[in-house]
Amino acid sequence: MTSRRQFLVVGAAASLFKPARARAAKTAGTDYPYAEFDARIARRDFRDITRDVLPTPAMIVDLDLFEKNVKTMADHAKAAGIHVRPHVKIHKSVDVARRQIAQGAIGLTCATMAEAELMSGAGIKHVLWTKQPAGVNNISRAVALSKKDPTFMFVVDDPQVVDWVEEAAAARNARLKIAVSVFAGLTRQGIAAGQPALELAQKVAASKRMDFEGFMAYSGGAAHTKTWQVRRARSADDLAGVRETAELAHKAGLPVNIVSGGSTGTYNIDHENGLTELEAGSYVFMDTAYFAIGGKDDDSVYTDFKGALTVLTTVDSKRHPNGATIDYGNKAMNRPTDKVKGMPWLEVASQGAEYGILKWTEAGRDLKLGERVEIYCTNLDTSTNVYDRYYVARGEQIVDVWPIMGRSGAAQR
Ligand SMILES: Cc1ncc(COP(=O)(O)O)c(C=O)c1O
């Protein structure tokens, strides 16, 4: 785990942490018209909406850092000759996705049918769903979306599913784009590489209803492997099977348009491993689990992408020494591995559904009642899932609000 000192170093080296400064919420005398708050946001009237008036806990996107992250990935992809089809599960936001597409992403990767419907419904093309449909609900939705949006693609790892979707596609006169999911070290999915994967690809290609597009292989174990050299070896190992399968498919005369996989952790590795596109997601915001994996030039901390997302909280009680209570508890996905932006001397702990505790041992440190503290979450997937919007900030000013799918958008599943 990254030590507190290492986090301090990251801040100094990569501007992850702005100089610590007590940021107070507006208290007495505040005349901000809260009755109109959501109406103002709906009108996109952000006058006077600064960080200090926001209801907390709230998710804040630092727009400059976010844009920098998206550009870093786009520049890398161009230089390395690989495409980016970013994963949306960590942000679940059409606004974020549109900015990724504007920077050259060839489409999007989704974990759920609902994400795929949301993104395709927003007019974004070339959405890839990386889970196969195995129930009547998802089979009929995947077929319906394929009919509505012929650029939509999904994966299969089982001949039984090929039969089910074939039948559903025939009943609706639909045509499907299919990739075969190949095992890449993560036991949750993927047919065995080599002959079994080739035979499944041939079955798809032989279907009158399906276009075989290529392979998907997610080496999830490599993504968070610590130190770049070990990660590089793990990824090469995990992706050797899909590489061999793609060669077999070429030899068998099957067109392999894509080999999709990869992650934020292996983005600067996987062009070596036969992938044609990266499904990386977390790089847009980053979380403390990713900071800790180490980068190519520094084993202790990963600074390729900056911490662009924080949870803003308020100190709302201060009755005990060396501790302060904040309004960031279990429901807001408080984790002991979270880190406080600009204040590496603080430790995060939960105290219940709506309460968190910040503790410190260093002498001479303190927090003020009403002070605002920003926290880097540990796992973007689970954290962003419980908020309904991102407040997008340039400095203190909120310049935009982006809805997060779920409570605010389409159904979750
Ligand atoms: C199928 C798939 N592809 C890619 C990723 C990589 O995402 P990240 O860059 O956030 O690690 C994930 C993450 O879980 C995934 O499930």
What does this structure look like?
With 413 residues, the chain is α/β, with parallel strands linked by helices. The chain has twelve helices and 18 strands. Strand 11 and strand 12 form a beta hairpin. Helix 6 crosses helix 7 and helix 8 crosses helix 10. The longest helix is centred in the middle third of the chain and has 24 residues. The radius of gyration is 23 Å and the shape is globular.
Spell out the blueprint of helices and strands.
Layout: H1 4-14, E1 23-24, H2 37-42, E2 58-62, H3 63-80, E3 83-84, H4 94-102, E4 108-110, H5 113-121, E5 127-129, H6 136-148, E6 153-156, H7 159-171, E7 176-181, H8 195-206, E8 210-217, H9 220-223, H10 228-251, E9 258-261, E10 277-278, H11 288-291, E11 309-317, E12 323-326, E13 339-340, E14 347-350, E15 356-359, E16 371-376, H12 380-384, E17 389-394, E18 397-403
Helix pairs in contact: 6-7, 8-10
The structure holds pyridoxal-5'-phosphate.
Pyridoxal-5'-phosphate binds next to helix 9.
